[in-house]
Amino acid sequence: MTRRVAVVLWCGVLLGALIAFTFSQGAAKVNEKSEAASRLLTLVGAQFPNLTEAERALLVFVDLKKRAQGDFALAGPNAAASDASNEPVHADQWNHERDVRAELIRWLSVDPDASRLVDPRGIRLLGARVIGRLDLSRVHVPFPIVLRNCAVPERLIFAATSILFLDLGGSHIGEMDAPGIEVDSDLRLDSGFQAAGEVNVAEARIGGALLTSGRFKSSAIDFDLFDPKNTQRRAFYGLQMRVGGSLVFRDVHIDGGIELSGSTIGADLILDGSFVNPGMMAIDATSTNIAGNVIIGYEVPFVSDGLVNFVTARIGTDFFVAQATFSGAAREPHGLDASGISVKNALVWTNVALPNGGFLNLTGASAEALIDDEQSWPAPGNLLIDGFTYTRFSQIGPTNAAGDASTRLRWLRLQSGFHSQPYRQLAKILRESGDEPGATEVLIASDDLNYRRFGLSGRIWGAFLNTTIGYGYQPLRAMGWSFAVVIFGSLVVATGKRAGVMRFRWPEDTPSPPGDPTAGLHPMLYSLDVFVPFVNLHQENYWWPDETASGECAIFGQRVPVRGSVLRYYLWLQIVAGWLLSAIFIAGVTGLVRSD
Question: What is this structure's pTM?
């Protein structure tokens, strides 16, 4: 019995010791967690006294040990980004407790002791007013920064900053100076984002997508130091960026120019909304290299006021323009300049308006296919397509323009002046598609315009070549005209024979044949003998009109006077026509007069 009691006592002692150890470990962990939290507050308290409620909420949210719940540190009373209380347009009505000092955000990013205590989610702040200038230039920020629906009135500086992810969605800022910024993932300036000054992300390196929506406005007019008369109003400056994903301007209003020259985009470039820079460059995408599509308009209408420039751009898939208006004042340059552009697949141009003389410039461009509609063609004189090459016309809808010769000739005639290459290109496409008559029609139309450039003489000679041999593309026309001349000549000769004005010209050493001296004269053979050079049918040598003779011939019951001198003049003309039509026929058959 005593032994059992001893065992029970020992078990109780061991159990108590185990319970005591467990409680002591739990208390140690609680104390450690509390110590970590207080350590961050201690660190911040030494440099940033008098924390606001928004700053305290931010510090609690980013604390690695406390692991706060929710998606954002809340500066306002509501956790919903769409709630009116979190709209930065009302930031002037927010109280002081919603302020977050810019220096506090910078301290969390650069102070090694503080940044070690920041949760990998990083800084995620909703509905705050950031006070002071946030300068993170040349800083490696080890975590994402999300300032959603915040008011940032002073300049944001991210020059040469390296960061995992940057999201300013829904925020209203002043200017953003971020040349050379490096973002591992996405850079978001969307969800109602507004910038009151230039956003500069020149030479940025963005691993993911650059997403924008909202309103952008240029800071002021910039002057070119080398050309003071050259002024620019840039709202978005993205010269020579490298974007791994898509670059999206979705449902934006941009007051000022967009500069994208020399940029490389790994996916699509999407442009819709309004882009306003009157009389200047609305969008400059010169020499961009875009691996995916360029989509202008389509889901949301696109409107520009100013010039849209894609000169020498390289497009990896399609260049798609739909629901787009390229507007501008009548005397200001506006429209799309895509000269030298290279499109791997289709160039789509549908439901496009070019008011007040807007132009489409595809000089030197190339695409696999062209898809357009006649309603989207520019006014006459505003289409520039010299050097534009393509392999086919395609139709994706019932309103798309056809690829037949008559439709495309109307398209070519919208050019200013004469350029032969677009006609040859169209003829090539029609011939390859099996439409040889259409190709011939196009080439004839090209030569018509070409000869008209040389005044009255050119028009006359061009009309002759077109009528006789179709500029060498239809040489058999000369055969038809020759046949008509021979038939008409035979009728003339027959009339002269019946009127008695034809005289026998037998060689002097041969006596005249007895009987009727015109018995061996055959009008058809005579006409053929006169017309065809180098052919002797023994007709012209033996008979010839007597220029002193005259007579009458009954034609359809009417007595018609016939004079030998008139008949002689006609035969001379027929001889000349024979030489000329024969020479033209040979030139047409051999291709000597063909422009292709």
Answer: 0.80
